[in-house]
Design brief:
By secondary structure, the chain is of the alpha/beta class. About 20% of the residues lie in helices and about 25% in strands. The chain has a single domain, classed as 4-Layer Sandwich (Metallo-beta-lactamase, Chain A). The protein has an 8-stranded mixed β-sheet.
C-alpha cells in the first residue's frame, strides 16, 4: 500500500463568491469514440473511469496514483434516506472488491464536494486512513470526521504538491527529489448549498514540468476567472477535461450543466485536446425525489459534433469512457 507526501505549496484563497451559480435514468448509451481526432496525447497518464463521479488515474512523471470522488461499494443515499433517493451503479456489480483494492493503492484521494455522491462515507470508511486527502473545505471536514489523518482543505486557487511515498522515502535517504511532483490546484467549483455557502472544488492536476495537465469538475459549474487563473498556475495549458456533457435539473433548478455550457468550459480551458465525459447521471435511481429530475439528453456524439462546429473538426476529441477500462493520455 502506498501513501503520499503532501506539502502545502501555497494556500492562496480568493474571496468566497456570493454568486451561486433522470427521471429514472436511461440505460447507458452505447459507448463510442465521438471524434475522428487521435485520443491519446502521449503525455503519460492512464485514466480509468469507475462510474458515477469516481475515477482513478496514474501519472507517469510523478508516479502519483490519484483516486477521485470514490463511490465503490453499495448504493448512494443522501442523509441515509433511501426512500427519498437511492442510486445504484450497474457498473459496480461484481467489481466492488477489485475496485476497492485498487483504491487502497492511491497516493492521494481527491474529494471535490462534501456531498455523499462525492464523499461517499461507506467507501471512505473502507480506505486506509493514512492516505492523504485533498478536497474542498466541506469535503475536508467529512474526511476528518471519518478519521483520515492527513487532510488538506483548500479554497480557490490554493495548491498542494503530491509525491508517492516511495519518492518521499528516497528523498529522505538521498537528500534529493527522485521524481517530479504532481501539482494539485483547486478552482471554484459547484454551488450546491444555500446562496451564502462556499463553492465546492474543481481540480487542476499538473504532472511535473511537462507531463499531462488534467481538469476535473463534476457539475460543469465554475467561475471563469478562477478557472483561467488555474490554467495559468499549471503552465498555461490543459490537455484533458473531465466534465459532464449532459445537464441534469431538479424541479427546473440546474444541478449539472452540459451541452453549450460544457463547450464554454472547454473554451475557457484553452481548448484541451481531449474531453472525457463524466457519465455521472447514468444510474438506476429510485425514491420520492426521482420524479423531479430531468435531463437534456446530450450524448457524447452530439457533444462531439458541437465541439467540431465550434472549434473545428478534430480539434477536440470526445471519448466516452467505459467503466473499468483505462484511457491512455
Amino acid at each position: 500500500m502506498s501513501a503520499a507526501s503532501v506539502s502545502l505549496a501555497g494556500a492562496v484563497a480568493s474571496r468566497p463568491s456570493v454568486r451561486r451559480g433522470a427521471r429514472r435514468a436511461a440505460r447507458c448509451p452505447r459507448v463510442a469514440r465521438a471524434s475522428s481526432a487521435e485520443a491519446a496525447t502521449g503525455l503519460g497518464c492512464e485514466y480509468t473511469y469507475l462510474g458515477g463521479n469516481s475515477w482513478f488515474a496514474t501519472f507517469a512523471a510523478s508516479g502519483v496514483k490519484v483516486l477521485c470522488d470514490p463511490w465503490l461499494v453499495g448504493d448512494l443515499t443522501f442523509w441515509d434516506l433511501p426512500e427519498l433517493y437511492k442510486g445504484t451503479k450497474a457498473s459496480l456489480a461484481g467489481r466492488e472488491r477489485e475496485w476497492l483494492e485498487r483504491a487502497k493503492t492511491a497516493d492521494v484521494i481527491l474529494l471535490s464536494q462534501g456531498w455523499e455522491d462525492h464523499a461517499h462515507r461507506p467507501t471512505l470508511r473502507l480506505l486506509p486512513r493514512h492516505i492523504p486527502v485533498v478536497g474542498s473545505p466541506a469535503a475536508a471536514e467529512v474526511a476528518k470526521a471519518l478519521g483520515f489523518t492527513r487532510v488538506t482543505g483548500l479554497r480557490a486557487n490554493a495548491s498542494v504538491e503530491v509525491t508517492t511515498r516511495e519518492a518521499s522515502d528516497e528523498r529522505a535517504v538521498s537528500g534529493r527529489d527522485a521524481r517530479e511532483k504532481l501539482l494539485v490546484v483547486v478552482a471554484e467549483g459547484a454551488s450546491v448549498g444555500p446562496p451564502w455557502s462556499e463553492r465546492e472544488a474543481g481540480f487542476f492536476l499538473a504532472d511535473g514540468a511537462r507531463g499531462a495537465r488534467l481538469y476535473y469538475e463534476p457539475h460543469c459549474s465554475y467561475v471563469a476567472a478562477s478557472v483561467r487563473r488555474g490554467v495559468a498556475q499549471v503552465g498555461g495549458r490543459v490537455d484533458v477535461c473531465v466534465t459532464p456533457v449532459r445537464s441534469v435539473d431538479v424541479a427546473g433548478f440546474a444541478l449539472v450543466a452540459g451541452g453549450g455550457a460544457a463547450a464554454d468550459l472547454v473554451e475557457t480551458l484553452g481548448t484541451p485536446r481531449l474531453v472525457v465525459p463524466l457519465r455521472n447521471g447514468e444510474l438506476e435511481q429510485t425514491g420520492a425525489s426521482v420524479g423531479l429530475l430531468g435531463t437534456d439528453g446530450t450524448t457524447g456524439e452530439t457533444f462531439a459534433r458541437l465541439c467540431d462546429a465550434r472549434f473545428g473538426r478534430g480539434a477536440v476529441t470526445v471519448q466516452m469512457p467505459v467503466p473499468g477500462v483505462p484511457i491512455g493520455v
